[in-house]
Amino acid sequence: MFSKTCEYAIRALIFIAQKSKDGSRVGIKDISAGIDSPEYFIAKILQDLSRKDFVQSAKGPNGGFYMDDANLEQSVADIVREIDGDKLFSGCGLGLKECSEDHPCPIHKDFKHIRQEIKTMLEESRIQLFVENLDLKLTFLKQ
């Protein structure tokens, strides 16, 4: 459903939020190991997300990535839009460019409802909520 870049970005932001809630900062090596991603790839993703204010970063010996209150309130939909664009929320289920209300594909009507449910779920899903669920051991990022 998401690109690999988007999957890693979401997982990394949740991981960073959980690990930095006590004020500490998390380094690339720890993030990479914590979400099972290639170090170089996640570094590139986080550098981009930091420039776009999805995550905060600090350089130096006590540097690393961390989340502020505004970052914790971001929706997963915001992250998806930034990385994968709006296609998940508006695209055709079969990938047809011409699909529309006036010219629907075979699954258009049913997929429209699924797309809206996914959009609503991701809009309502905040990074902070995922951190709380991880802390309660209701969910996991890596086994």
Automatic annotation (TrEMBL):
Pfam families: Rrf2. This is Transcriptional regulator, BadM/Rrf2 family. Transmembrane segments: none annotated. NCBIfam families: rrf2_super. PROSITE patterns: HTH_RRF2_2. InterPro entries: Tscrpt_reg_Rrf2 (IPR000944), WH-like_DNA-bd_sf (IPR036388), WH_DNA-bd_sf (IPR036390).
